[in-house]
Amino acid sequence: MPSAVRFGVNYTPSEGWFHHWLDFDLDSVRADLDSIAAIGLDHIRVFPLWPYFQPNRTLIRPRAVEQLVRLVDAAAERGLDVNVDGLQGHLSSFDYLPAWTRTWHRRNLFTDPDVLDGQATYLRTLAAALADRPNFLGMTLGNEVNQFSAGPHPDPDRAGEDEIDRWLTRMLAACEEGAPGRLHLHAEYDATWYQDDQPFTPAQAARRGAVTAVHSWVFNGTAQRHGRTSVPSEHHAAWLVELSKAWSDEPHRPVWLQEVGAPAPLVPPEHAAAFTAATVANALDCPDLWGITWWCSHDVSRELADFPELEYGLGLLTNDRKPKDTARVLERAAQEAPRTPEPRTTALVVPADPGSRSLCAPGGPVFDAYFRLVADGARPTTVLDVRAADQEHLTARGITEVVAPDQVLPTPQGGTRS
């Protein structure tokens, strides 16, 4: 019996990586999708490369859009639903932005009127092309687009929080215009939750779009600081799921763990399956989890140069489409009977001020307090400091106990707190 939680994978083509759009081979795609369906997953997330699809602001290549539709149809034949990321954007350490936004034509991705018109038209076009496909889940605006908006990007497109809010509102509306009623959302990397000067904020993540998306990577300092088998590393994905709930205006807004992986060498290949099992089990203990989408489907071919070393081995399947132990872990999890996690009744107070987000980052006092609670056997969630005394809000979420970070004492070595 399949799980009530959706299980899927971010689709990385085994031949040509995302450059496969330049030499689109539907037979190769079908073979990839066969290998994904064979491990019992129910959806994929796919990535059109923006410069390949919209090389000029007023040219959206019909053949590229047709190829995307063919990929979605091939997925349907194998029982796979599809989420489509639009503005690619940034993938595996590389930036893919069209020439009409860079160098001699440098224009801000989030504020320039012409760029906004081009982006909205592009997203609307992709959504409309798929609107009648039953297995089309909806659009994600792009992959971790927030990395363009601030440091450490070497050439950021600076924008204020209000400008980003207007950008999100307009782009999500364009997706809805193209494919009404589908699951349209936006997704950022964890700087949204951890970086004080990020203009993409937790409130936007938790209130804009159909679901909240989180991307969990323990190479952000978590595994370096605590080790691969630590409570923080094995519960990091669950932490982001629960952290996101503090900002939601809906008591039970769904949260999608849209990216999570086992990055070497912090998680060596021989330990990847154990890390995967722990991460998935802990995420499944989070109420209101929409789904888990692993990064990624297939390893990057060693014939391709200049990727960071960890990117070559992140696949559930090898480059020749053979399942790894991590694939079997996800397969077993997807086959388990559905269960509904008990409510998380203890809430840790987190700062509502986006300028204090670093307190929630690895090494921050809120982060550390959360994992001290977890290590002591608690199942905490989070609540904003401005809502900590709002009994109506707490009751709607099933919270019966609120604790501040400075109330969570370290556990004595070798024992438990009295």
Topology:
Layout: E1 6-10, H1 26-37, E2 43-46, H2 50-53, H3 62-77, E3 81-85, E4 90-91, E5 94-95, H4 113-130, E6 136-140, H5 161-178, H6 191-194, H7 202-207, E7 212-216, H8 222-226, H9 231-234, H10 236-245, E8 255-260, H11 272-284, E9 289-294, H12 325-335, E10 346-350, H13 365-375, E11 381-384, H14 391-397, E12 401-403
Parallel strand pairs: 1-2, 1-9, 2-3, 3-6, 7-8, 8-9, 10-11, 10-12
Antiparallel strand pairs: 4-5
Helix pairs in contact: 1-3, 3-4, 4-5, 10-11, 11-12
Summed up:
InterPro entries: GH. Helix content is 33%, strand content 12%. By secondary structure, the chain is of the alpha/beta class.
Query: How many individual domains?
Result: 2
Strand fraction equals 5-15%
Count helical runs.
14
Instruction: Profile the largest sheet.
Output: 7 strands, parallel
Q: Give the topology string: H per helix, E per strand.
A: EHEHHEEEHEHHHEHHHEHEHEHEHE
Extended strand count: 12
CATH class of the largest domain: Alpha Beta
If you average the pLDDT, what whole number results?
Answer: 96
Widest sheet, order of strands: 6-3-2-1-9-8-7
Known CATH architecture of the largest domain? Alpha-Beta Barrel
Distance between the first and last residues' Cα: 42 Å
Structural class: alpha/beta
Helix residue percentage: 25-40%
Could you tell me the radius of gyration in angstroms? 21 Å
The unreliable regions are 412-418
Question: What would you give as the CATH superfamily of the largest domain?
Answer: Glycosidases
Which shape, going by the Cα principal axes? globular
CATH topology of the largest domain: TIM Barrel
Protein name: Glycosyl hydrolase
Organism: Streptomyces chartreusis
GO molecular function: hydrolase activity
InterPro entries: GH
